[in-house]
Amino acid sequence: LATGPRQNNGIFYEIRTYDIKPAKMKEFLELVNKHFHLRTAHSELVGFWYTDLGALNKVFHIWKYDNFAHRTAVQRALANDKDWQGKFISVVRPMIEKQHNEVAYLVPWCQLGKPTKEGGVYEWVTFQMKPGGPALWGEAFQASVNAHINTGYTRLIGVFHTEYGLLNTVHVLWWNESPDHRAAGRHSAHEDARVVAAVRNSVRFLESQQNVLLIPMQCSPLK
């Protein structure tokens, strides 16, 4: 079952997740900071993070493409970029244990946001919803997200739903000033009757949820 309506253009986001060998994580991050400008010369990077809580030795990066032809052209150019292949890909390939990618669209009611300042932390929340797509759970899910936004303790960056990968998956990216600020806000939200009611309605359609705390890399446009 498809995930349903999306924004009315061809723009999509490729979400890439790499599991890095624990002994190589520090070296991998250093190479990203040193050479990733070679990759961003080819297409737009939305953000690049490494995990701090909820999962270890993982990196997340999100790329924006105008359409699938654009992605194909970028992949072809990268394959022919000797600097990128020689200085980065050939070096980091042995450091990577596993790779996973998804194609996702922003939900129609969300625009990609930015933090109010640099220096905070990001939370990547993955919801596996029941089959049926937004026609089934979209309104309840949107109400739950909006209830959290309205508390004011956190800032929404983006809501993505999958087109390739595991379907009926929704990723929500939040920004907070610090982990402690996020924790205090969550405690307050749990006592907010509006949040409790919205979450109770949305959770009827939920299969599973995973939360990961992310730290932005130097090369990340979202910091």
From TrEMBL:
Which Pfam family would be a valid example here? Answer: NIPSNAP
Entry GO terms, CC: mitochondrion
Q: Name one GO biological process term.
A: mitophagy
* Domain of life per record: Eukaryota
Domain called NIPSNAP: residue spans: 13-111, 122-221
Task: List, alphabetically, the Gene3D superfamilies matched.
Answer: 3.30.70.100
* Family label: Belongs to the NipSnap family.
Please report the name of this protein according to its UniProt entry: NPS3A protein
Q: What is the lineage of its organism?
A: Eukaryota, Metazoa, Chordata, Craniata, Vertebrata
